[in-house]
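can u do me a favor
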Protein backbone atom coordinates (compact mmCIF):
# COMPACT_ATOMS: atom_id res chain seq x y z
CA UNK A 1 0.00 0.00 0.00
CA UNK A 2 1.35 3.39 -0.99
CA UNK A 3 2.31 5.93 1.67
CA UNK A 4 -0.19 8.49 0.30
CA UNK A 5 -3.00 5.91 0.34
CA UNK A 6 -2.22 5.01 3.95
CA UNK A 7 -2.31 8.69 4.96
CA UNK A 8 -5.67 9.20 3.24
CA UNK A 9 -7.02 6.05 4.93
CA UNK A 10 -5.83 7.25 8.35
CA UNK A 11 -7.33 10.72 7.86
CA UNK A 12 -10.67 9.30 6.68
CA UNK A 13 -10.75 6.86 9.60
CA UNK A 14 -9.89 9.62 12.08
CA UNK A 15 -12.59 11.88 10.60
CA UNK A 16 -15.16 9.06 10.81
CA UNK A 17 -14.14 8.29 14.39
CA UNK A 18 -14.44 11.96 15.34
CA UNK A 19 -17.87 12.08 13.69
CA UNK A 20 -19.06 9.01 15.60
CA UNK A 21 -17.80 10.36 18.93
CA UNK A 22 -19.35 13.78 18.27
CA UNK A 23 -22.70 12.17 17.37
CA UNK A 24 -22.59 10.00 20.48
CA UNK A 25 -21.80 13.00 22.70
CA UNK A 26 -24.63 14.93 21.02
CA UNK A 27 -27.10 12.16 21.86
CA UNK A 28 -25.80 11.97 25.43
CA UNK A 29 -26.30 15.74 25.77
CA UNK A 30 -29.83 15.47 24.36
CA UNK A 31 -30.58 12.57 26.70
CA UNK A 32 -29.51 14.69 29.69
CA UNK A 33 -31.68 17.61 28.52
CA UNK A 34 -34.63 15.24 28.00
CA UNK A 35 -34.13 13.75 31.47
CA UNK A 36 -34.03 17.24 32.95
CA UNK A 37 -37.31 18.08 31.21
CA UNK A 38 -38.87 14.85 32.50
CA UNK A 39 -37.57 15.61 35.99
CA UNK A 40 -39.06 19.11 35.87
CA UNK A 41 -42.36 17.66 34.68
CA UNK A 42 -42.43 15.19 37.59
CA UNK A 43 -41.67 18.02 40.02
CA UNK A 44 -44.50 20.08 38.55
CA UNK A 45 -46.94 17.17 38.90
CA UNK A 46 -45.72 16.45 42.43
CA UNK A 47 -46.20 20.10 43.47
CA UNK A 48 -49.68 20.05 41.95
CA UNK A 49 -50.50 17.00 44.09
CA UNK A 50 -49.13 18.83 47.15
CA UNK A 51 -51.38 21.82 46.42
CA UNK A 52 -54.37 19.50 46.12
CA UNK A 53 -53.61 17.92 49.52
CA UNK A 54 -52.52 21.11 51.29
CA UNK A 55 -56.02 22.56 52.06
CA UNK A 56 -56.85 19.42 54.04
CA UNK A 57 -54.10 20.28 56.54
CA UNK A 58 -54.14 24.10 56.46
CA UNK A 59 -56.47 24.45 59.46
CA UNK A 60 -55.04 21.61 61.53
CA UNK A 61 -52.40 21.89 64.26
CA UNK A 62 -51.65 25.58 63.85
CA UNK A 63 -51.96 26.64 67.46
CA UNK A 64 -48.28 26.16 68.26
CA UNK A 65 -46.23 26.31 65.08
CA UNK A 66 -47.89 28.00 62.12
CA UNK A 67 -46.35 30.35 59.54
CA UNK A 68 -47.78 33.85 59.54
CA UNK A 69 -47.45 36.78 57.24
CA UNK A 70 -48.27 40.34 58.12
CA UNK A 71 -48.84 42.27 54.89
CA UNK A 72 -48.27 45.99 55.03
CA UNK A 73 -51.79 46.79 53.85
CA UNK A 74 -53.47 45.06 56.81
CA UNK A 75 -52.71 44.46 60.47
CA UNK A 76 -54.26 41.08 61.05
CA UNK A 77 -52.08 37.95 60.98
CA UNK A 78 -52.58 35.69 58.01
CA UNK A 79 -52.34 32.02 58.63
CA UNK A 80 -50.47 30.14 55.88
CA UNK A 81 -49.66 26.53 56.81
CA UNK A 82 -48.00 24.37 59.43
CA UNK A 83 -44.31 23.96 58.26
CA UNK A 84 -44.00 20.47 59.74
CA UNK A 85 -47.02 19.26 57.82
CA UNK A 86 -45.79 20.96 54.63
CA UNK A 87 -42.34 19.38 54.96
CA UNK A 88 -43.80 15.89 55.52
CA UNK A 89 -46.23 16.30 52.64
CA UNK A 90 -43.47 17.42 50.27
CA UNK A 91 -41.19 14.53 51.27
CA UNK A 92 -43.88 11.89 50.86
CA UNK A 93 -45.02 13.24 47.49
CA UNK A 94 -41.50 13.71 46.07
CA UNK A 95 -40.48 10.19 47.08
CA UNK A 96 -43.56 8.76 45.39
CA UNK A 97 -42.44 10.54 42.19
CA UNK A 98 -38.86 9.22 42.68
CA UNK A 99 -37.49 12.74 43.13
CA UNK A 100 -35.57 11.95 46.30
CA UNK A 101 -35.79 13.53 49.73
CA UNK A 102 -32.95 16.02 49.32
CA UNK A 103 -34.72 19.29 48.57
CA UNK A 104 -35.04 22.83 49.87
CA UNK A 105 -38.09 25.06 49.82
CA UNK A 106 -39.39 28.49 50.80
CA UNK A 107 -42.67 30.41 50.86
CA UNK A 108 -42.42 33.90 49.38
CA UNK A 109 -44.69 36.92 49.12
CA UNK A 110 -45.15 37.37 45.37
CA UNK A 111 -45.78 41.10 45.60
CA UNK A 112 -42.36 42.00 47.00
CA UNK A 113 -40.39 38.68 46.85
CA UNK A 114 -39.97 38.72 50.61
CA UNK A 115 -39.35 35.35 52.27
CA UNK A 116 -42.15 34.44 54.66
CA UNK A 117 -40.64 31.06 55.52
CA UNK A 118 -37.70 29.01 54.46
CA UNK A 119 -36.14 25.74 55.45
CA UNK A 120 -33.36 26.88 57.79
CA UNK A 121 -29.95 27.60 56.26
CA UNK A 122 -30.47 25.99 52.88
CA UNK A 123 -31.19 28.83 50.44
CA UNK A 124 -28.16 30.11 48.50
CA UNK A 125 -27.71 33.08 46.16
CA UNK A 126 -28.96 31.13 43.14
CA UNK A 127 -32.10 29.83 44.82
CA UNK A 128 -34.41 32.00 42.72
CA UNK A 129 -32.80 30.82 39.48
CA UNK A 130 -32.90 27.11 40.31
CA UNK A 131 -36.36 26.75 41.88
CA UNK A 132 -39.63 25.20 40.79
CA UNK A 133 -42.52 27.55 41.64
CA UNK A 134 -46.21 27.08 42.39
CA UNK A 135 -48.69 29.72 43.56
CA UNK A 136 -50.42 28.89 46.85
CA UNK A 137 -53.90 29.67 45.54
CA UNK A 138 -55.21 26.83 47.64
CA UNK A 139 -54.49 28.89 50.78
CA UNK A 140 -55.13 32.38 49.49
CA UNK A 141 -57.46 32.99 46.57
CA UNK A 142 -54.94 35.25 44.88
CA UNK A 143 -51.35 34.43 43.79
CA UNK A 144 -50.07 36.43 46.74
CA UNK A 145 -47.97 33.53 48.04
CA UNK A 146 -45.59 31.24 46.15
CA UNK A 147 -44.10 27.88 47.14
CA UNK A 148 -40.63 27.51 45.65
CA UNK A 149 -38.73 24.20 45.74
CA UNK A 150 -35.05 23.66 44.94
CA UNK A 151 -33.29 20.30 44.37
CA UNK A 152 -29.51 20.76 45.03
CA UNK A 153 -28.79 17.20 43.81
CA UNK A 154 -30.93 17.49 40.67
CA UNK A 155 -27.99 16.91 38.29
CA UNK A 156 -26.81 13.89 40.29
CA UNK A 157 -30.32 12.38 40.27
CA UNK A 158 -30.50 12.78 36.48
CA UNK A 159 -27.02 11.31 35.96
CA UNK A 160 -27.88 8.41 38.26
CA UNK A 161 -30.98 7.68 36.19
CA UNK A 162 -28.86 7.75 33.02
CA UNK A 163 -25.83 6.02 34.56
CA UNK A 164 -26.31 2.71 32.72
CA UNK A 165 -26.60 4.36 29.31
CA UNK A 166 -23.76 6.77 30.07
CA UNK A 167 -21.46 3.91 31.11
CA UNK A 168 -22.40 1.88 28.01
CA UNK A 169 -21.83 4.92 25.76
CA UNK A 170 -18.43 5.67 27.33
CA UNK A 171 -17.38 2.01 27.04
CA UNK A 172 -18.46 1.91 23.38
CA UNK A 173 -16.56 5.14 22.66
CA UNK A 174 -13.43 3.73 24.32
CA UNK A 175 -13.80 0.46 22.38
CA UNK A 176 -14.10 2.38 19.10
CA UNK A 177 -11.04 4.51 19.95
CA UNK A 178 -9.05 1.41 20.97
CA UNK A 179 -10.08 -0.45 17.80
CA UNK A 180 -9.11 2.55 15.70
CA UNK A 181 -5.69 2.76 17.37
CA UNK A 182 -5.11 -1.00 16.95
CA UNK A 183 -6.10 -0.88 13.28
CA UNK A 184 -3.85 2.11 12.59
CA UNK A 185 -0.95 0.37 14.34
CA UNK A 186 -1.65 -2.78 12.32
CA UNK A 187 -1.65 -0.79 9.07
CA UNK A 188 1.63 0.93 9.96
CA UNK A 189 3.13 -2.41 11.01
CA UNK A 190 2.06 -4.01 7.75
CA UNK A 191 3.61 -1.08 5.89
CA UNK A 192 6.88 -1.59 7.76
CA UNK A 193 6.77 -5.35 7.12
CA UNK A 194 6.18 -4.64 3.43
CA UNK A 195 9.21 -2.33 3.35
CA UNK A 196 11.34 -4.93 5.16
CA UNK A 197 10.14 -7.62 2.73
CA UNK A 198 11.03 -5.47 -0.28
CA UNK A 199 14.46 -4.67 1.19
CA UNK A 200 15.04 -8.35 1.90
CA UNK A 201 14.11 -9.34 -1.65
CA UNK A 202 16.41 -6.64 -3.07
CA UNK A 203 19.29 -7.66 -0.79
CA UNK A 204 18.79 -11.36 -1.47
CA UNK A 205 18.78 -10.69 -5.22
CA UNK A 206 22.07 -8.80 -4.95
CA UNK A 207 23.63 -11.37 -2.63
CA UNK A 208 22.74 -14.33 -4.86
CA UNK A 209 23.41 -12.53 -8.13
CA UNK A 210 27.17 -12.17 -7.50
CA UNK A 211 28.04 -15.85 -6.87
CA UNK A 212 25.66 -17.01 -9.62
CA UNK A 213 27.32 -14.63 -12.10
CA UNK A 214 30.77 -15.77 -10.99
CA UNK A 215 29.87 -19.45 -11.34
CA UNK A 216 28.33 -18.78 -14.76
CA UNK A 217 31.43 -16.93 -15.95
CA UNK A 218 33.77 -19.65 -14.65
CA UNK A 219 31.68 -22.34 -16.34
CA UNK A 220 31.82 -20.50 -19.68
CA UNK A 221 35.61 -20.19 -19.44
CA UNK A 222 35.93 -23.91 -18.76
CA UNK A 223 33.64 -24.80 -21.67
CA UNK A 224 35.56 -22.57 -24.12
CA UNK A 225 39.07 -23.46 -22.97
CA UNK A 226 41.50 -25.14 -25.42
CA UNK A 227 43.37 -28.31 -24.51
CA UNK A 228 46.71 -26.64 -23.65
CA UNK A 229 45.39 -24.32 -20.98
CA UNK A 230 42.54 -26.54 -19.81
CA UNK A 231 44.27 -28.15 -16.83
CA UNK A 232 45.37 -24.89 -15.18
CA UNK A 233 42.07 -23.19 -15.90
CA UNK A 234 40.14 -26.13 -14.50
CA UNK A 235 42.10 -25.83 -11.26
CA UNK A 236 41.64 -22.05 -10.93
CA UNK A 237 38.01 -21.86 -11.95
CA UNK A 238 37.04 -25.00 -10.09
CA UNK A 239 38.31 -23.26 -6.95
CA UNK A 240 36.20 -20.19 -7.83
CA UNK A 241 33.11 -22.34 -8.38
CA UNK A 242 33.74 -24.21 -5.12
CA UNK A 243 34.17 -21.00 -3.08
CA UNK A 244 31.07 -19.38 -4.57
CA UNK A 245 29.11 -22.55 -3.96
CA UNK A 246 30.14 -22.43 -0.29
CA UNK A 247 29.09 -18.80 -0.19
CA UNK A 248 25.64 -19.62 -1.61
CA UNK A 249 25.32 -22.52 0.83
CA UNK A 250 26.23 -20.25 3.75
CA UNK A 251 23.65 -17.66 2.72
CA UNK A 252 20.90 -20.27 2.35
CA UNK A 253 21.92 -21.79 5.70
CA UNK A 254 21.68 -18.37 7.33
CA UNK A 255 18.09 -17.95 6.14
CA UNK A 256 17.18 -21.49 7.26
CA UNK A 257 18.79 -21.01 10.68
CA UNK A 258 16.81 -17.81 11.24
CA UNK A 259 13.59 -19.74 10.56
CA UNK A 260 14.64 -22.47 13.01
CA UNK A 261 15.53 -19.87 15.65
CA UNK A 262 12.11 -18.26 15.30
CA UNK A 263 10.44 -21.65 15.84
CA UNK A 264 12.88 -22.55 18.67
CA UNK A 265 13.92 -25.66 16.74
CA UNK A 266 17.68 -25.04 16.81
CA UNK A 267 19.62 -27.58 18.90
CA UNK A 268 22.59 -26.40 20.97
CA UNK A 269 25.64 -28.48 21.81
CA UNK A 270 26.82 -26.65 24.92
CA UNK A 271 30.33 -26.98 26.33
CA UNK A 272 32.52 -24.90 28.61
CA UNK A 273 34.15 -22.28 26.38
CA UNK A 274 36.52 -19.33 26.85
CA UNK A 275 35.15 -16.05 25.52
CA UNK A 276 38.60 -14.43 25.27
CA UNK A 277 39.87 -17.27 23.06
CA UNK A 278 36.91 -16.86 20.70
CA UNK A 279 37.37 -13.08 20.49
CA UNK A 280 41.11 -13.37 19.83
CA UNK A 281 40.50 -16.00 17.13
CA UNK A 282 37.93 -13.82 15.34
CA UNK A 283 40.17 -10.74 15.48
CA UNK A 284 43.08 -12.76 14.05
CA UNK A 285 40.92 -14.00 11.17
CA UNK A 286 39.76 -10.47 10.38
CA UNK A 287 43.35 -9.20 10.41
CA UNK A 288 44.34 -11.93 7.92
CA UNK A 289 41.60 -10.88 5.49
CA UNK A 290 43.47 -8.72 2.97
CA UNK A 291 40.26 -7.50 1.36
CA UNK A 292 39.26 -5.60 4.49
CA UNK A 293 40.16 -2.00 5.28
CA UNK A 294 42.99 -1.23 7.68
CA UNK A 295 41.47 -1.49 11.16
CA UNK A 296 42.72 0.01 14.43
CA UNK A 297 41.97 -2.30 17.35
CA UNK A 298 41.55 -1.28 21.00
CA UNK A 299 41.27 -4.49 23.01
CA UNK A 300 40.79 -4.62 26.80
CA UNK A 301 39.92 -8.14 27.92
CA UNK A 302 39.71 -7.36 31.64
CA UNK A 303 37.31 -10.10 32.75
CA UNK A 304 39.09 -12.37 35.24
CA UNK A 305 36.64 -15.19 34.54
CA UNK A 306 35.66 -15.70 30.89
CA UNK A 307 34.33 -19.26 31.11
CA UNK A 308 30.74 -19.87 30.12
CA UNK A 309 28.57 -22.79 29.08
CA UNK A 310 27.59 -22.41 25.44
CA UNK A 311 27.54 -23.77 21.94
CA UNK A 312 31.03 -23.04 20.51
CA UNK A 313 29.86 -22.65 16.91
CA UNK A 314 26.98 -20.30 17.70
CA UNK A 315 29.07 -18.28 20.16
CA UNK A 316 31.72 -17.85 17.48
CA UNK A 317 29.06 -16.79 14.98
CA UNK A 318 27.54 -14.39 17.53
CA UNK A 319 30.74 -12.42 18.11
CA UNK A 320 31.73 -12.73 14.44
CA UNK A 321 28.49 -11.00 13.47
CA UNK A 322 29.05 -8.16 15.95
CA UNK A 323 32.66 -7.61 14.87
CA UNK A 324 31.79 -7.96 11.18
CA UNK A 325 29.08 -5.29 11.55
CA UNK A 326 31.50 -3.02 13.41
CA UNK A 327 33.94 -3.31 10.49
CA UNK A 328 31.32 -2.88 7.75
CA UNK A 329 29.73 0.25 9.20
CA UNK A 330 32.88 2.06 10.36
CA UNK A 331 33.77 4.09 7.29
CA UNK A 332 37.24 4.42 5.79
CA UNK A 333 39.28 4.38 9.04
CA UNK A 334 37.66 1.86 11.37
CA UNK A 335 38.45 1.91 15.07
CA UNK A 336 37.06 -1.18 16.79
CA UNK A 337 36.93 -1.34 20.58
CA UNK A 338 36.53 -4.71 22.33
CA UNK A 339 36.30 -4.98 26.12
CA UNK A 340 35.20 -7.54 28.71
CA UNK A 341 34.48 -7.37 32.43
CA UNK A 342 32.86 -9.45 35.16
CA UNK A 343 29.79 -8.34 37.02
CA UNK A 344 27.67 -10.43 39.43
CA UNK A 345 28.62 -13.89 38.07
CA UNK A 346 28.30 -12.68 34.51
CA UNK A 347 30.63 -11.61 31.76
CA UNK A 348 29.93 -8.44 29.80
CA UNK A 349 31.39 -8.17 26.30
CA UNK A 350 31.25 -4.75 24.63
CA UNK A 351 31.96 -4.22 20.92
CA UNK A 352 32.19 -0.59 19.83
CA UNK A 353 32.98 1.22 16.60
CA UNK A 354 33.37 4.76 15.24
CA UNK A 355 30.95 4.21 12.38
CA UNK A 356 27.81 5.80 11.01
CA UNK A 357 25.72 5.07 14.09
CA UNK A 358 22.06 4.10 14.38
CA UNK A 359 19.23 6.57 14.90
CA UNK A 360 16.96 6.14 17.97
CA UNK A 361 14.04 5.40 15.64
CA UNK A 362 15.91 2.45 14.10
CA UNK A 363 17.39 1.15 17.36
CA UNK A 364 13.99 -0.26 18.35
CA UNK A 365 13.92 -2.54 15.31
CA UNK A 366 17.52 -3.56 14.60
CA UNK A 367 17.06 -6.94 16.34
CA UNK A 368 13.95 -7.75 14.29
CA UNK A 369 14.14 -10.42 11.63
CA UNK A 370 15.09 -9.08 8.15
CA UNK A 371 15.23 -5.50 9.47
CA UNK A 372 17.91 -3.23 8.01
CA UNK A 373 18.23 0.53 8.27
CA UNK A 374 16.33 1.64 5.19
CA UNK A 375 18.52 2.87 2.34
CA UNK A 376 16.13 2.28 -0.55
CA UNK A 377 17.70 0.39 -3.44
CA UNK A 378 21.27 1.33 -2.50
CA UNK A 379 23.15 -1.90 -1.79
CA UNK A 380 26.37 -0.53 -0.33
CA UNK A 381 26.50 -3.01 2.58
CA UNK A 382 25.79 -6.70 2.06
CA UNK A 383 23.44 -8.78 4.17
CA UNK A 384 19.88 -9.99 4.65
CA UNK A 385 19.12 -8.21 7.90
CA UNK A 386 19.45 -11.49 9.82
CA UNK A 387 22.73 -10.88 11.66
CA UNK A 388 21.47 -9.01 14.71
CA UNK A 389 18.30 -11.10 14.84
CA UNK A 390 20.55 -14.16 15.02
CA UNK A 391 22.79 -12.51 17.64
CA UNK A 392 19.89 -11.66 19.95
CA UNK A 393 18.33 -15.11 19.50
CA UNK A 394 21.58 -16.85 20.46
CA UNK A 395 22.18 -14.51 23.40
CA UNK A 396 18.64 -15.10 24.69
CA UNK A 397 18.95 -18.88 24.21
CA UNK A 398 22.07 -18.78 26.43
CA UNK A 399 20.29 -16.82 29.18
CA UNK A 400 21.88 -13.48 28.35
CA UNK A 401 20.89 -9.99 27.23
CA UNK A 402 22.06 -7.55 24.59
CA UNK A 403 21.67 -3.79 24.37
CA UNK A 404 22.92 -1.04 22.09
CA UNK A 405 24.04 2.54 22.57
CA UNK A 406 24.48 4.58 19.43
CA UNK A 407 24.63 8.11 18.06
CA UNK A 408 24.49 9.14 14.43
CA UNK A 409 27.99 9.71 12.98
CA UNK A 410 29.61 8.81 16.33
CA UNK A 411 29.40 5.04 16.29
CA UNK A 412 27.71 2.23 18.19
CA UNK A 413 28.43 0.02 21.20
CA UNK A 414 26.80 -3.41 21.51
CA UNK A 415 26.95 -4.88 25.02
CA UNK A 416 26.37 -8.62 25.49
CA UNK A 417 25.84 -9.98 29.01
CA UNK A 418 26.11 -13.76 29.52
CA UNK A 419 26.05 -15.96 32.65
CA UNK A 420 29.33 -17.58 33.64
CA UNK A 421 29.76 -21.35 33.80
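np, heres the sequence
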Amino acid sequence: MKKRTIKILIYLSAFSLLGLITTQLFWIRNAIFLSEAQFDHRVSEALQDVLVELPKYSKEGCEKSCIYSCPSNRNQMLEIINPTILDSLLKATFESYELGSDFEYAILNSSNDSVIFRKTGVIDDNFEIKTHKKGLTCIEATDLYTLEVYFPQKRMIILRELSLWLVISIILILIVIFSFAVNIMAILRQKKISEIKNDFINNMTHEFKTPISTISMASEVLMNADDESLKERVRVYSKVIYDENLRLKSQVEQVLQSAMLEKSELNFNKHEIRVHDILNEIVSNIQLDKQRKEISWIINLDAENDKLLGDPMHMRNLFSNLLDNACKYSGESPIINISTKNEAKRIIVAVGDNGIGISPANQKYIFDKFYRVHTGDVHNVKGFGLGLFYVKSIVTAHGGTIKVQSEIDKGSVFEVTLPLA
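DSSP finds ten helices and 13 strands in the chain. hope that helps!!
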